[in-house]
Amino acid sequence: MAEKESLARQQAVHQAAVAMKYLQAAQKAREIAQANALAAQEAKQTAQSNLYAAHMNLAQMAWDDAHVENILNLLNRHAGKTPDEDLRGFEWHYLYRLCHQDLATFKSGFLVNSAVYLPNGTQLLLANSRGQLVYWDLVEKRPVFAATLHRGKINQLALSPDGLTVATVGDDQTIILWDVEEKTKLQTITGHTGKVLSVCFNHDGSQLATGSADKTARVWDLKSGQCNKTLAGHRYDVISIGFNSDGSLLATGSRDATARLWDLSSGDTRHIIQHRDAVDSVQFSPLKGLLATGSGDGTIQLWSTSQLRQLKTITSGQLAIRHLQFNPDGTQLASAGADSTIKLWKVPLGKEIRTYKGHLRPVRCLAFHPNGEELISASWDLTVKRWSLEPSPPVLGAHQHVVQDLDYSPDGKWLATASYDQTIKLWQMPNRRLAHVFSSTESPVRTVRFSHDGQWLAAGTADGMLYLWDLQNRQIKTRRLAHQQQINQIAFTPDSRWIGSVSNDGLVKLWNLTDDHPVAVIRDQQGSVNTIAFSPDGSHCVTGGHDQVLRVWNRENQQLVEEIPGHRLGILTVDWSLDGKWIASSGYDRSIRVWNVDRR
Length: 600
Known about the structure:
Layout: H1 2-64, H2 68-76, H3 90-98, E1 104-107, E2 112-117, E3 123-128, E4 132-137, E5 142-148, E6 154-159, E7 165-170, E8 175-179, E9 184-189, E10 196-201, E11 207-212, E12 216-221, E13 226-232, E14 238-243, E15 249-254, E16 258-263, E17 268-274, E18 279-284, E19 290-295, E20 299-304, E21 309-315, E22 321-326, E23 332-337, E24 342-346, E25 351-356, E26 363-368, E27 374-379, E28 383-388, E29 403-408, E30 414-419, E31 424-428, E32 433-438, E33 445-450, E34 456-461, E35 465-470, E36 475-481, E37 487-492, E38 498-503, E39 507-512, E40 518-523, E41 529-534, E42 540-545, E43 550-554, E44 560-564, E45 571-576, E46 582-587, E47 592-596
Antiparallel strand pairs: 1-28, 2-3, 3-4, 4-5, 6-7, 7-8, 8-9, 10-11, 11-12, 12-13, 14-15, 15-16, 16-17, 18-19, 19-20, 20-21, 22-23, 23-24, 24-25, 26-27, 27-28, 29-30, 30-31, 31-32, 33-34, 34-35, 35-36, 37-38, 38-39, 39-40, 41-42, 42-43, 43-44, 45-46, 46-47
Helix pairs in contact: 1-2, 1-3
């Protein structure tokens, strides 16, 4: 009996041991599965982050080339995701704002060939490809009246100096005069034997000039409706036309790649201006004696009409110039480009003031607000945009690639900018003068920081190198391989004696400025560490990364003091308040979180 009980106990122990073994194996299998799932999730997040970064870099390059449609396509690929999947950061919103710098965008639904502000500045007159004249209210942001005036498209319109009459010209070879206030047709003028392509009023509204596909320009007396002069000389269509300020001269532009200046007293050609492509626009400045011509060759020529002398040739970089327009005081000239951009130039110097980007197709026409403070543009993308002419903030300077980071010196006299072009630039403030270029790095620069005493400048690069420069002589003091992967951020302790660096290798390293070897290496997590900040007394540092947890470390013994979970996706930035009581963090989950770490 005892023998049987002993055997039963042995069997039970054996079975329990076997069961425990299986339980341990199952536990290990679960741990392996969980680790694999975590690794797969991290790999997925890394791949998504890399794709996002690549798309943002492509979007920045597309902005440089004015390919706004490409930018929006790239941005849209990362919009509309759930909070857990949304990786959009500052750069996404920055690029989105770049593409929407206009004051307003109106979807016209039709191709606008010509536009003008009414004198009240609250309505536009638009001439479209359907033969319609459209009143567009800028306050209500919609069309409030439309009339079909031509069979076929309206090619151009012109508003009389008193703002009471508009003239339209079309493919049906007619010229129509329209009462702006009564919204009724005043007169139909015929005489051209081809499409009428361009039109303008003289200074007092008594005469009208038109250009046609019949290769002529004609000057009409508006009282009688009769043609006073027929100006022949162009070999192809006359596509642009304009009177000078006193009505004594007429300029015409043609598809024969010339602009002609006509003396209206005699009807003779005073001068021929040569371009390499069609002259799509001719404009006299409100200032006497200045003529601008814009061409499909991408150039703008400025001429003195009194001296018949070319003052300036502007190479616009806009592929082709579709329209030119002077502002009301004649000091600025806007050009509409086939590359979908609008450029603003200072005249007669020909200096570029600003480039407006936002249209998706070539810009067809422009018009200045009567007060000169706004500009509207109409494009082949079937939109009309309003732009502010207030000067944009001055551009500090240029890197050759993405500017990844920047930092002000403690005294505010210097600004350092770090770029993927492998340079750090030092700017003297507030005059924005480039003082020095640190170009000893061999990889894109990810992060840059001034020491709190203003003596040192440190930088971390994509190949894991840590650099330290002495700002007094601007000589490099230290160049060391700090990490095996890219450095994401660096930080100085408040006493400027220590540097902390964090990397994609999952390590936090603490460096004493007097030593080339790290005083401490902390294994933070399996994934990358993105950000680091020191407490005001320098005794602790806080780090955050892809594992969504903030960690507070004792700098002296490198012991973990506290883990702070809460973010649902990786952590991007962290900072410590000056009183030491609070830590703020932000992450891929689009949240900003503030944590109380006061332990007193």
